[in-house]
TrEMBL record:
GO terms (BP aspect): diaminopimelate biosynthetic process
Protein's recorded name: Hippurate hydrolase
Cofactor note: The Mn(2+) ion enhances activity.
The protein's required cofactors: Mn(2+)
Gene Ontology terms for molecular function: metal ion binding; N-acetyldiaminopimelate deacetylase activity
Domain Peptidase M20 dimerisation residue range list: 208-296
Record: residues binding Mn(2+): 122, 124, 158, 184, 383
Superkingdom assignment: Bacteria
Keywords annotated in UniProt: Hydrolase, Manganese, Metal-binding
Amino acid sequence: MSQRSSPEALGPLVPAMTAWRRDIHAHPELGFEEHRTAALVARELEAAGIEVTTGIAGTGVVGTIRGTGMVEPLRGAGMVEPLRGRAGNRAIGLRADMDALAMTEVTGAAYASTVPGKMHACGHDGHTAMLLGAATFLAANRDAFAGTVHLIFQPAEESLGGAKAMLEDGLFDRFPVDAVYGLHNLPGLPLGIVAVPKGPVLASSDTWQASFTGRGSHGAKPHQGTDATLAAAQFIAALHSIVAREVDPLRTAVASVGHIAAGNPRAPNVIPSEVHLAGTARALAPLERDLLERRIGELAHGIAAMHGLVADYRYIRRLSPTVNHPAQAALAYRAALAAMGEARDDHPPITAGEDFSEMLLARPGAYAWLGTGDPPHPDGQHHNPHFDFVDAALAHGAAWWCSVVETELG
């Protein structure tokens, strides 16, 4: 007889999840390089008696568990239907990311990165370990659900398009799902609390590039050239007016400059002929995303024309906003309540980006936050060299994933 998932029920798997997590943490791999991590995942899935498919988008892994639970008959007016809503034929996907970041770890942990310049600074090691724990529990409790669970271990979430690569490699054609769910750790949210926003969760993540080309001159004779640096400075100031003056104050958008290149520091008396800039643009909805793409370009070309310069502008759409589907968000929230007894559905959107958005464009689903409490180090937020996943959250995350399966397919 199966047992209902909860952090307590997942407790016996915490030592294994902790060992997996710390092993992965000590051996970080960047996007599409997760060969060791993928091998560990495949090995542990097979050890739990789970069907395994490797090599999806290079290093992606999918484990498949088929439930054996009986679907409760629907009775009424003297009729019995053996499969209510054909629930036993349904399938869902659970996704965890595996890649690390190109950063140098300074945590000093005994299991710290052994690879110079690479570390798990976003908790993907914890995500992988939690989904492995959930997989082990579900494989041992197949009678708790009627249907199929596909465990999706994704490469290259960090800006390299791993989700899109898996989709293009036929992920949902080879492993059809009716819904897909993702989970990410969140420092600052109380430990063990799962938050499932009702709508937008994360913003789009796009890159823009602009360059100004004029005629260089001696720094003492600016009138003999057309100053690209002045135009770039005015462009930067104008860029920040888009969100301040053209976006509804009750809506969200971000435009930031992240790169400026011009001239030579060894020749400060030369006004350069070219200035190159690049940055990021974020929005929670298509309206603001379209506005940013259009207005950044208009400002670049307009300011260039005003100064007698030539502007070159590119806007690269990278990640769509991550937006939860209402029905799946409600189900994921109920699953958190069932497993932990407490959950939130009112967490505000965050302007970071996440390529799980691509999966949510392909199938209905929901993305949730897992609270890990206050970080061990004051600077231990995501993408910081002090970051470390909190092992005390492992049982809660694994229990939530199992509860989603039980709620969807039970």
